[in-house]
Amino acid sequence: MFISTLAAIVLLGSAVLASPIPSPDPNCSTDRSILKSCKELTLDQDGHTLKASCLDCNQAWSPTSLDLDQVLGNDHGNFVWDQKSFSLSARDSSLNSETAELSANLKTGGSYDGEFEEEPEQKGTIVLANRIQNVGGYLTFV
């Protein structure tokens, strides 16, 4: 009896630890535009984490963030979606919170290792609102 009770506790504990973070409700009636349903859009000090407060399904402001390095890359000085780690080849990243436009000096060639010693670069810009939406209070790449 003790062993089966212990086994049940272990199994229950595993289920609790393994439960995923709840996904946002895609049927939520919140406007998905980050420009309309989010406020305080900022770029974290790391230069690649987008932070905001967005309306959730209950119309409450919810703090949220998204690591842009997981969805943005650099292709010879241009931001590109569906790639990774743009920040390794970028410097002076900034965000216009009114337009959700990210800009940075991006390497145009060479190695993308974070070193900028006399390597060519150019100003790159991208409008984050084109692919990032508010889904149930979460910044979400779509």
From TrEMBL:
Domain of life: Eukaryota
Signal peptide residue numbers: 1-18
Alphabetized SUPFAM superfamilies for the sequence: Cyanovirin-N
Domain Cyanovirin-N: 33-141
Tagged with keyword Signal: yes
A Pfam family annotated for this UniProt entry: CVNH
Keyword Isomerase: no
InterPro entries per UniProt: Cyanovirin-N (IPR011058), Cyanovirin-N_sf (IPR036673)
Entry keyword set: Signal
Protein's name in the database: Cyanovirin-N domain-containing protein
Native source species: Linnemannia exigua
